[in-house]
Each structure stands twice: as structure tokens, then as C-alpha cells.
Amino acid sequence: MRTTIVLLGVLAACGDDTKATGDASAIDAVADTGPGGPDAGFDIPLETWTWLDVPGMVCGNGSPTGIAVNPSTKSQKLVIMFEGGGACWEAAACYGIVIPVTASHLDGFNAATFAQVRPQIFDSSFLFQRTDPTSVFGDATWVFVPYCTGDIHSGTRDNVYEALGQQRTMHHRGGNNVDAMLEVVKHYPASEVFAMGISAGGFGVQLNWDRIAAAFPSVTTHAFADGSQMVPIESARYGTMNASWAARFPAGCNDCNHHFDNVAALWRAAPPPHGGRLGLIDSLQDGTLSVFFGYDAAGMKVQSQIIGNAMTGTQAAFMVDDNSHTRLAQPATQTSTGVVLRPWVEAWANGTAAFVTVGP
């Protein structure tokens, strides 16, 4: 029997019922009990959250981190959620010099942090309701991956910044954290993989789609991003990002270290092996991305609409013409033509005909 694996990236997650264990050895190296067994292939309690430290995963300050797992045997689905929350690539933004820190959890992420953020994504989401038979992932096993490196899950470098006269090291190791997480979960049997992300998590999903696919080489992988349209970034700004992070790009991505939008172009032309559906919630005038990437509202709209309109076939965009950043937590959102977000997302998950580019 094979198990569906769903990977998601989100802004935040939570719960004071989270239990802490030692490390990721709590997950069977081979899921010997199988998805229908007593622990869904995990040596942890069912349908409650357990925090697992994962060797090799670190936050910006160098402290260790891990993943949270909530297993179920009610279906063959597994959800892995990538958290989002800003980014930083200069000392001022990473350390709050003159301006506030612009990336989340750089000072660490553990079980207590997860307990603070979980309600925002899991508990209130239509996707993750255990007792609601209409909840598309309500019967799944869930894994949460924190975001605490400021590098949209792409970094491979410890960068030394000059901060108020001091040399301070920021561990931009988000890409390496993805590798460590996949080493833990890749042994879990799967029939299908869904990768989904919100904000920085959505960029992380798109930047790592090939690595997710490689971890599960015999199954189909799907991807979803909310508020993560890969528009062009001004060259000097983008160059500083890549220099600070040593950002990692999908294999075969031509000149992606100079052109961020080439990642989207790559997946349109050649999804990863066994790549499936790619969905995008695209707020055309996204005010948050405009600030980070250096656009005014009009410029952001032009570039966002180019990305959305190019998505056809197994790739589709849900476009709304406003300056909101993310929409997945607002399932009643409608396009100007009356298409409602929740059934559109469910069409992505289920592969039904309603999954087509819509809006604005």
C-alpha cells in the first residue's frame, strides 16, 4: 500500500497540545507499519502534534530546529507544510538596525514556537479539519516545516554581517533545512505528493520542487503557492539576496541566479520528473511583495498578471486585482467573474476540471 504525501508552505502554524520528543529517529526509517498500521508509519501518537528535532536543521542564530508531525491512519495522505514569513539579506533588516527585522523566527523555532503559531494555519483552515468530512486534507497526516532562516527556504550559507560594529553570523540555511527534512520523510511510502506554500513558503516550494520530486521518485508531485508569484526582481537587489544566501535553484534552471522569474519559466517549460499540477493564488497588486521586490502597485500588477496568464494546462492561477498578500485563509474570496477560492483550491487538490486560470 502506498501513501499520498502533501507538502505545504505556510505563513504560520501552533497548539498547546504539542508534545516534544527527542529527535527525528521517532520516525521509522522504513514505514514498517504502513499507512494503515497503528502509527501510520510514525512511532508517535495519532492525531496529535509531536515536535521532533531534526539533525542538521538550524535557524538564523544557529540554534537547532526540527519539524512537527500529526499522523493519521484515516487516509493515505501526508501533508508537509513549509512556513513563510518575510526575508532578509542585509544587516539592517536581519538585525533590526533602524528598521524592524523583516524575517520571522531568526532567533529560533522549537515546540513552544510552534504552539504559538499553529492556530493561524491549521486550526482555522478549511483544509485541516479532522471532524469535517468535506475538509480536503482533514484525514491526512500532517508535517510542519518551520521558516527561521530569512532566505525563502533557499539558502546554503552562513553569512557574516557587520551589525553596529560587530561581526554577526546569520545562518541562511533554509535550502539545507529542506534537505534534512526530506531525509526524514522520504522513507514514508507515497502514491502522490502535493507541495503547497504561503508567501516565503510558496517560494520555497517552487525553488525546491525538483528536490521534493527526487525524494519521492516514483510518485507524482503537485505544487501550490499563495502570494508567491515569481516576478522579476531588480538586478542589484536580487544580486545582494543571492550573495547573502548562496541561494540554491532548481537543477537546469537557466540563469536563475540573475532572473528570479526564470524559475516560473522553467516549470512552465519542463516540470520536474513526475511533476503534476501547479497552482498559484496571485494578488496582482500584492503590497507585501511590492515592498520586498521594489515595485509600485502598477508595476507589480503588470508582472503578476504576466505570470498568472502564462499558466495553462496542468498549471493555473487564481488572480484577484487588489493589494492583498495571501488569500488561502479567506476561502470565500472571489474573482471579478465570481469564481470562489475554496472550490478552486479543492479542484487543484483533486485534479478536477475547475482547476483552470481564473480572474482577475
Secondary structure layout:
Blueprint: E1 4-10, E2 19-23, E3 50-58, E4 64-70, E5 77-83, H1 91-95, H2 111-123, E6 141-145, E7 157-163, E8 166-172, H3 174-185, E9 192-198, H4 200-215, E10 220-226, H5 235-245, H6 262-269, E11 275-283, H7 287-293, H8 297-309, E12 315-320, H9 341-350
Parallel strand pairs: 1-5, 1-9, 2-3, 5-6, 9-10, 10-11, 11-12
Antiparallel strand pairs: 3-4, 4-6, 7-8
Task: Provide an overview of this structure.
The protein is globular. With 360 residues, it is an alpha/beta fold. The strands form two sheets. It has a ten-stranded mixed beta sheet with strand order 2-3-4-6-5-1-9-10-11-12, with helices on both faces. Strands 7-8 form a two-stranded antiparallel ribbon. The chain contains nine helices and twelve strands. The chain is 26% helix and 23% strand. Helix 3 (174-185) packs across helix 4 (200-215). The chain has helices spanning 91-95, 111-123, 174-185, 200-215, 235-245, 262-269, 287-293, 297-309, 341-350, and strands at residues 4-10, 19-23, 50-58, 64-70, 77-83, 141-145, 157-163, 166-172, 192-198, 220-226, 275-283, 315-320. The protein starts with a strand and ends in a 10-residue tail after the last helix. The chain has a single domain, classed as Rossmann fold (3-Layer(aba) Sandwich), CATH 3.40.50.
Summarize the structure.
By secondary structure, the chain is α/β, with parallel strands linked by helices. The chain has nine helices and twelve strands. The protein has a single domain (7-350), classed as Rossmann fold (3-Layer(aba) Sandwich), CATH 3.40.50.
